[in-house]
Amino acid sequence: MTDLATVRQLDAADPLAAFRARFVLPDGQTYLDGNSLGALPRATAARLADTVTREWGQGLIGSWNAAGWIGAPQRIGAKIARLIGAAPTEVIAADSTSVNLFKLLAAACAAQPDRRVIVTEQGNFPTDLYVAQGVAAYLPGVEVRAVPRAQIAAAIDADVAVVMLTHVHYKTGAMYDMPAVTRMAQAQGALMLWDLSHSAGAVALDLAAANADLAVGCGYKYLNGGPGAPAFLFVAEHHQASLRSPLTGWMGHAAPFDFDDAYEAAPGMDRFLCGTPPILGMAALEIGIDLFLEADRTALFAKSRALCSLFVELVEERCAGLGLTLASPRDPQARGSHISLAHRDAYPVMQALIAHGVTGDFRAPDILRFGFTPLYVGYEDVWRAVEILRDVLTSKSWDSDTYRRRAAVT
C-alpha cells in the first residue's frame, strides 16, 4: 500500500520537479484538468506584453517582417513536429482543430472522388463528428460511417476515402495502436487522419514511424498555449502536392503579396494556411511549446504513466465501495494521460471536488475526468486528490442543490 511518505519520496526523486515552478498554479488548488486547459507558463505574460507593447506598439506593421510574425505558423509548426515525430516541413500551426479537420477531411475526399465514405468512431469527440457531417453535407455523395470502436476494421472497405479517429479518446483515455490502425486503413486504400488533441504532449508520438498520412491537434491542452490557442495540422510530405485545402484564403496562396485575382495554391504545407495568423495566440503557444521542448520526453511520458497508475491504485485502495468504476483502460500502455471514473452522480461530485480544491472535469453522462500533466503535477497531488475524493464521497457533501446546478461549461 502506497503511503504519503512514499509519494513524497517520488516527488523528491522526480527529474521534472523543477518545471512546476515555471507555471502559475493557485495556492491550495490541485489542478488535474490540463487535459482540458493547460496551466499558464510564467513566461507567457511577459512574452505577450512584449508582443503588444514593443512589437505591435512600436514596430507596428513592420513587425510582420522585423519580429517574424509572418513566419510564425511555419516556425511553430516545425517545433511541434519535434514533439510528434514529424519532419519540420510537415506541420503548420493554424486556425482551430475543427477548421483543420474540415480542411483535411474535405481535401482527402476531393482527392479520391471514387471513394465517398468517411469512417469514424461512434462517441468520438463531438467536433470531429460534426465536422465530418458538415463535410458530407457540402460534398455531394460523401457520407459518414460512424461505428462502434470494435467495428472500425470491418467498416473500412473500398468505398472509404479517409478514416478519422482520435488517438486518445477524450472521455475514456483509451488509446489506439497508431501504427496498426494506420496500416489497416492504408491496406484498404484509405487515408488515415488522426486527431492528436489528447495525445500531443501527453504520450509518445512518432508519426513518421507509424507512416501516418494526416493529423490535427490543439495547442491549449498539454502544450499550454492558452484558451483557444492556435491548433496544428500535419500532412505527410508525399501527400502535400496532391491535396488541396478547401479554404483557399490569401495566406495559402503561392504568392500572397502579389495580390493576384486567381488562386494558386502554395507549395508544401503553406497551402493549408487560410487567413492572417493570430499573432497574440501564436506568441503564447510558442512559449508553451518551447517550455515543453526543454523537458526530457522519455522521463515525461514515463511520469505520465506513473501518475495515472498511482491514481488508479489509490482510488481502488481508498475509495472502494463508494460508487466509482474505472472507465479508462487498466493497462498503462493502452491509455493516455487522463483517468476517467464513472459515478452515478458525477456532475455534483466533480463540483464538490472543485470547491474542495481539486479541479477535474465532468463528461456526460457519468464521467469524472482527471488529467495528469507531468510538467506540473506531482505525486503528492495525486495523493491529495484521492484523499479529498474519498472525503467528498463518504461525507456526501456533493449532495446539494449548489453542486447539482449545471454551469455552461462542465
Automatic annotation (TrEMBL):
Leading EC class: hydrolase
EC number: 3.7.1.3
Residues carrying N6-(pyridoxal phosphate)lysine: 221
Keyword annotations: Hydrolase, Pyridine nucleotide biosynthesis, Pyridoxal phosphate
Cofactor(s) annotated in UniProt: pyridoxal 5'-phosphate
Role noted for this protein: Catalyzes the cleavage of L-kynurenine (L-Kyn) and L-3-hydroxykynurenine (L-3OHKyn) into anthranilic acid (AA) and 3-hydroxyanthranilic acid (3-OHAA), respectively.
Assigned protein family: Belongs to the DegT/DnrJ/EryC1 family. Belongs to the kynureninase family.
Matches recorded under NCBIfam families: kynureninase
UniProt-recorded name of the protein: Kynureninase
Gene: kynU
